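Before relying on records like the one below, remember that each one covers exactly one chain. Contacts with other chains, cofactors or solvent are not represented anywhere in the record.
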Amino acid sequence: MTPIPRMIFSILVSLCASWAVAAQPSHKGSDSPELNATWSLFQQESPAIADVFPVISMRLSPGFIEDRAIDMPGLNPVFLIGNDSLSRNWLRANKSLLQRLKATGLVVNAASPDSVNELSVLVDGLLLLPVTGDDLARLLDLEHYPVLITPTYLEQGL
């Protein structure tokens, strides 16, 4: 993998995370009424957010991958999921690892904000971002999710 695509991937993930952190409290049910009110507006009433849905990644579908090594130094851990039974089961099985890594979730197939909210309940405070995953799929030569992406490997663990 060349340095330029690696840099583009890192910038994309950083920008998505920065954008969402500004709009989302660190966990659902925050003690701050202001943060809860902001998150409520963000997920339900924002026309810009509503325009994001449905999130459809044409190059990605639920399925199995072979774990493999990659070389993306400096990348913060991210995981790709959709709103499907394989992704939900994978989230339940890997929740502790994802929380320990403080991984950011990229929801690459979701019909609505409600479907992302259903997934957020399963990860208890981890950041989930609805994004089309086609560019990431092309960059990382991926066809399926769920998958955990770290600086050194792609892992599904199923």
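The first helix runs from residue 3 to 23.
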